[in-house]
C-alpha cells in the first residue's frame, strides 16, 4: 500500500461528512470506503 498523505485523508473525510450531511446518517455497510484505499 502506498503512502496516503494527510491532504488525501482530509479530502476523503470531507466527502464522508458531506455524504452524512445529505443523508442525515450513514451506513458503513453501504458506504464504499474502498475508493479511499489505494
TrEMBL record:
Domain of life: Bacteria
Protein name as catalogued: Uncharacterized protein
